[in-house]
């Protein structure tokens, strides 16, 4: 990490941790809006994702076109990255929508399928995060987010229709056609788009400042932020252990951020070792 840009010592740690928590909070907002849309009778995970990618494209795509930049990475790599991210987002959102809309009941009739979906979604998210970290550190976030949003929209549109699950039709075209389009439903889609924009625009900053490991560790608090949101909106009561666990996760993130070696620090240490070796060589030559 560039110490001139982020500061040193405790300020750098606070910057990284707080930035990660903003990403985690935005992810909790996405889950909340997805859950709310399911409760209102709309089950459309790809359409929700489309709103997120649309907001990213409108902002960063405009900036990219204004700068008249040329792609520094081939477009097909962005298609692959967008495809992986869309699948991970779908398997995360699909579980939220199915559980909140009551599909399959609450008895957990097919736990193996649920485990497979969770594992698959985690794998897709891991691949997406590592790939995004690589391209962000190589070309910057404007190009990455512009192409990421554009191809994410394209993949989402292509996958909105041919889906079914155990004989239950979850074609989004039909779901959207029969959806009760009122102000509350529209606000959930708008809210998801804004939260998705926050998540995607802040993610490259975390990946650039720290890396995919700390990014995924920061997301451990997303469920806790979701509890906080439900407490504030629905006035639900939660056990005090939630707050204790939140505290412990935060302490763990601070410890990890404090002890993590960033790329710039590693390069400085390597350069220092190299300079030390070069300084010793003449002295050794004189002694010989």
Automatic annotation (TrEMBL):
PANTHER family: DUF914-RELATED, OS05G0444300 PROTEIN. Its main location: membrane. It is found in: Membrane. The keyword GTP-binding does not apply. It is a multi-pass membrane protein. The keyword Transmembrane helix applies. Pfam families: SLC35F. InterPro entries: SLC35_F1/F2/F6 (IPR009262), SLC35F_Transporter (IPR052221). This is Solute carrier family 35 member F1-like protein isoform X1.
